[in-house]
Structure prediction request, 848 residues.
Amino acid sequence: MRWQIALLVLVGMIALLMPGMPQFAGAQAATTLIQGLGEEPDNLDPQRTTRFHSLVVLSYVAEPLFTLDKNYKVVPLLAQSHEWSADRKTLKVTLKPELFFHNGAPVTSADVKATFERYITVSPLSSYMRPRTGGIVGMDTPDARTIIFRFGQPKPLAMISDLSDAHTGILPASFIASTPSADIGIRALIGTGPYIFKEWVPGDRIVMERFDRYRWGPAFSPNRGPASFQRLVFRVVPEDATMTAEVAAGNVDLTFDVTPSGLQQLRANPNVTVMQAPSFSVQYLVLNMERWFFQSTKVRQAIAHSIDKEAIARAAWLGVGRPLEGLISEATIGFWPPVRGYAYKYDVERAKQLFAEAGWRAGPDGILRRDGERFEVTLVTFSNVDQWRRAGIVVQSQLRQVGIDVKVETAEVGAAYDRARAGTFDVGVFRNTWWLGQPYLNFLTHSTNIPVSNFSRWANPELDKLLETAGSAVDDDERDQALNRVQRIIVESAVWVPLVSNTSLLAAKKSVGGLEVLASHPWWPPHLRALALTRK
Amino acid sequence: MTRYVLHRLLALIPVAIGVTLVVFSLLHLTGDPVRLLFGLNVPEDIVQQRREELGLDRPVAVQYLRWLGRAVRGDLGMSITTGDHVVAMIRPRVGATLELTILALLVTLAVSLPAGVLSAIRRNTAVDNVSRVAALFWVSMPTFWLGLLFIMVFGVWLGVLPISGRAGGLWTLEGLRSHVLPVLTLGLPPAALFTRFTRSSMLEVIGEEYIRTARSKGLAERAVVIRHALRNALIPIITLIGLRLPWLFGGAVITETVFAWPGMGRLLVDAVLKRDYPVVQGIVVAMALLVVGSSLLVDLLYAVVDPRIRYE
Prediction:
């Protein structure tokens, strides 16, 4: 009897160590795409979420009226056409015919109206479109396919900033009316996207099924619909090393959440394809202009000349970062390439000369002194992401080289921003992500945003005026020129020193096809992720 | 006995209040969850409006009392980040965490009791020496590192076990397979301590007169060891189980993160990072309940193992 029990235990252990049944795994693998997510979405409600991972996932389900092509040109998605009034205060949008929600109901202008009403009421990101800021003051629906937006003041950026954004993903009016707000995007979500939201197992996975009636993908996608994969599974794997192992073992088809250190391991794996693309994410250094030692333009310029961005990209970002010349990256809408010509180049000798001209002399310990005061500063940066923290340490060593004694203090993101807002720092190394240049630079540099997001506490009336023009001028050229000038002033001021822009990373199994189509678009939009990917 | 259990359950109330008060105060010291959630791109007036909706503009003491008032009625509030009910968020995770910790405890005992007994009855032999070295090895191994090591060996190199996630319950093969690595990661390191503890407890008991008496009566050595020695040696081991249970729940936080296990530990980590006060508070209450409840079970086990113990 005893040996029989032992045999049973042995068989059990062998069964446990056997990989999953191959025929099932194979059949499922052909029609299912498993995507690894490094962070679990908070919810998939287009109007309520502010998290990047939520936005990416919900984009498979809910779609806005427009989207952007690879040249950042607004192209129709649910919309067929649009027409602006001359004063840019009225926008008429006509919907495509034959559009359906996942519940089978046709998409009508009433759904668009209900969605935008919800957007301007509940979305924290809808400030540009709120009535109080001259946004939507009325919406007319003369017929089932036409919606007319009426704005309180000219809103030239409305199409690019809001109507092309997944936060305005259109939901059925009846769904909005009948579903408790806490359930939308958590237990239920109905949209028009290429995938239908099926199941969310908290902490583990989100499952979607292909929407077979989908035919209205954007023109830049070689496949307008339906998607190739029958099933889409987002697996939540928050630990970086575990995600790298999952990709290496072939358990995850692809992920966009690869760390620089993971990338190096995966590059060496012959079964994995690795891709990089510019991202909107920028890391910058900001000086607290309430400190007397930063009042001198020469001192600020000297600091800018002291920073070796290439070294930061190499040491902190392990080669996946790119030196950044302007405060927005080349992937961000509104980037002005000539700003590169105004950026201060790494030049230690020039930096020392500028410090000397500003009255700073090196003391016996190598630290600069002026009027008996040592040049000592506190640098605050984030503690919770390796490359952010490392960048702070590299900056510390570079500034030490020119005679500034830097004390690095790290804190997790929220606490670091609290310090920035409270002004209890001298130098900050921070990071931001935003895909649209004007609002981003406005938040970061406009004087009305001191100290909420303009941590420099530097007010420049010319800069303020240009930022306002860049956001409201009806004429496209006038807006563009204003934004270009903004970028130049920011760089020349040396109040902010752009450091590094990190790159978007992708790691995929060799069996995933369509990656070259994805790579043809600079920021790998969710529609290409949903429609272009296939199984080889 | 009933009175004792009631007393213990009543003692949970001040524990829960004390723990949540400390956690609440500490979390509020770390800053503003709404700005963290919304990011820099949202204007201050919208952020302030949300703070007011959530009651975060009120004094901390008022916020705590309001939370407590609702909590005693079973309403743990709404998550700041997801907008979902905290109870609804925690409920599906409790089972996953309990499953992990109970199985890990079973692994700990399954390894440590035989190893400790063997070490004791074969004191200073090769078996004892191997057991000592193995105990030293496991006790020095941080959970995080051990988890990654298991992932590399069994998940990537050998490819025989799932790396992360919970593929289902224990009643399916895939589900069972997905439990192996996290359970071993959580269960093996404490087995080292339990082995050493079992050994010393057994050595103490083996020297007692009643063991000599049992032997002199001609009982088989196995019966002496298991029925007489081990049963009496178990009492301090049960004490150790009670003391280590909170540690197991704490260890589950790391293990769940490494193995993407959908339990309360991971939810707690996410909530702390996002300063989602209501969720953190809810999990702290749930964990306090689990720890106190399991400690109570351990206390009741004393009476089962040793009939001389009575709770009056």
Q: What stands out?
A: The mean pLDDT of chain B is 86. Chain B has twelve helices and no strands. Chain B touches chain A through 59 residues (CB under 8 Å). Residues 221-258 of chain B form the longest helix (38 residues).
